[in-house]
Design brief:
- Pfam families: LdpA_C, LdpA_Fe-S-bd.
- InterPro entries: 4Fe4S_Fe-S-bd, 4Fe4S_Fe_S_CS, Fe-S-bd_prot_LdpA_C, LdpA_Fe-S-bd, PSI_iron-sulfur_center.
- GO terms for molecular function: 4 iron, 4 sulfur cluster binding; metal ion binding.
- This is Fe-S cluster containing protein.
- The chain is an alpha/beta fold.
- The chain folds into two domains: about 270 residues, TIM Barrel (Alpha-Beta Barrel), CATH 3.20.20.70; about 60 residues, Alpha-Beta Plaits, CATH 3.30.70.20.
- About 40% of the residues lie in helices and about 15% in strands.
- The strands form two sheets. The protein has an eight-stranded parallel barrel, surrounded by seven helices.
- The longest helix is centred in the C-terminal third of the chain and has 20 residues.
- The two termini are about 30 Å apart.
- The model has no long low-confidence stretch (mean pLDDT about 90).
């Protein structure tokens, strides 16, 4: 069924106004997800990218339905999958009994998700896998745990939750794995509005020309199966909250990939924040942007306070208005820009 909201979301990709919220491919913090989806849905994002977890999807869908009833806006619901090992699908873990009593807990100070408290280990629901704590630990006791779904679980989950779109995180040299993943997705017999492919340069030891070649290989397969691709260019993954430097990395990747990319809209991610739009041309820019870490950080004080109050943000008028104002400040420049 094609709705006005579906048309608006599709048109945003054509016009260069597309904005996606990334809740996190491994984020399972249900209270925060409910509030993130409500706030950014009301702010006007066109898509919400979520972990492939039934509880997460149900929580997000309830928020999306509420946004539609209240504001008349309905972003697409997208889930993230991976065709192999990927940092977005990990969780940090450590045994707190190994921490010395005088440890200053630098892991706690650097965690953007507030997943590490004054005592104990990692709150796995809050952790979304940025990995900053791993390098910060002076004892090197923090490990990463792979939290990907197995291939055989893809189709049953998709059949149950029926998302509007799917994103596949991929990496160089994984064309066969990508094709297997796509075939499993097709078993769910869904008519997806978009099939997003996410990849970048970080950690892969390739240049932009080689990345473009990888995207073309995937385009060939998607074209055979009549899929509409969306290319997510992952600049510096999970770093949008770090500042303007991270934003420049994502923009530079787009500048290099754009002339040699396969057909389909290009969307920035990985390091995106309020500075991203400042580094882009006023016309002929990318078709869209995804905000993750920055989107969470700017409304985090209200998310945390709502959880302390044990209420949803939408039931706290002062907090709702303050958080929505911050969200709009991030999103609005993209909603009103003219890219052609």
């Amino acid at each position: 069924m094609i709705t006005n909201n579906s048309i608006c979301n599709s048109e945003a990709l054509k016009k260069g106004n597309w904005v996606k919220l990334i809740c996190g491919a491994s984020n399972q913090d249900l209270p925060s997800i409910v509030d993130l989806c409500s706030i950014y849905g009301a702010a006007g994002v066109h898509c919400i990218d979520l972990a492939a977890d039934e509880a997460v999807i149900n929580a997000a869908r309830n928020s999306i339905d509420w946004v539609f009833e209240t504001y008349g806006k309905k972003p697409w619901l997208m889930i993230s999958l991976s065709d192999g090992q990927d940092a977005h699908f990990r969780k940090a873990w450590f045994n707190p009994d190994l921490c010395p009593s005088n440890c200053l807990r630098p892991c706690q100070n650097i965690c953007p998700a507030l997943a590490i408290g004054n005592e104990g280990g990692v709150n796995t629901n809050k952790c979304y896998g940025c990995g900053r704590c791993i390098d910060t630990c002076p004892l090197g006791i923090i490990q990463e745990k792979d939290r990907r779904l197995t291939l055989k679980d893809f189709a049953p989950l998709l059949t149950t939750i029926k998302p509007d779109a799917v994103e596949i995180h991929t990496a160089p040299g994984r064309v066969k794995e990508f094709e297997k993943t796509i075939k499993e997705i097709f078993k769910a017999n869904l008519k997806l509005k978009r099939l997003s492919v996410s990849c970048g340069l970080q950690g892969h030891g390739i240049n932009h020309e080689e990345l473009a070649e990888e995207l073309w290989l995937r385009h060939k397969f998607l074209r055979i199966h009549n899929q509409k691709p969306l290319w997510q260019l992952d600049g510096r993954r999970m770093s949008g909250d770090l500042g303007a430097g991270a934003a420049k990395i994502a923009v530079k990747l787009w500048e290099k990939i754009r002339p040699i990319a396969p057909p389909g809209p290009l969307q920035l991610a990985g390091g995106t924040n309020e500075s991203t739009i400042k580094y882009l041309p006023e016309i002929n820019g990318p078709e869209g942007v995804a905000f993750g870490g920055k989107a969470r950080k700017i409304i985090q004080p209200w998310l945390e306070e709502a959880q302390r109050k044990r209420i949803s943000l939408k039931d706290w008028p002062e907090g709702w208005e303050a958080a929505l104002s911050e969200a709009k400040r991030l999103v609005n420049p993209w909603l009103i820009r003219k890219s052609s």
